[in-house]
Amino acid sequence: MEKLDVLAALAALAQETRLDIYRLLVQAGPDGLPAGQIGDRLGLPSATLAFHLKELKNAKLATCTRNGRPLIYAAEYTVMNDLLFYLTENCCGRPSTNCTPLCVPEADAQPARRTNRST
User: Fold this and answer.
1) What is the CB-side half-sphere exposure of residue 9 using CA atoms within 13 A?
2) How confident is the model over 8-31, as pLDDT tens digits?
3) pTM of the model as a whole
């Protein structure tokens, strides 16, 4: 994961409403939730919800697919795993093969591919 991608993801999650939305999407699992349900559960007006969902999509933390008429949003677990791996890559001064992130939402998640180690 590139440093700019890490910064975008962290910036997106550093806002209370977006963090609430993301956590709800993680709880919903890979099938995600329709935008209307997200707004209802969090008590968000549609314009506010749309803005925050767009920010999560731009940070690649969420995906959006159309299922008939509703838009379904889902957490992008691979990106979160990549973010966790980036943040813990050299934990305790050891190579990353000795230390993996503590929280891996997917049972079959693989560590991120390393790119540009100097960043």
Assistant:
1) 22
2) 999 999 999 999 999 999 999 999
3) 0.78
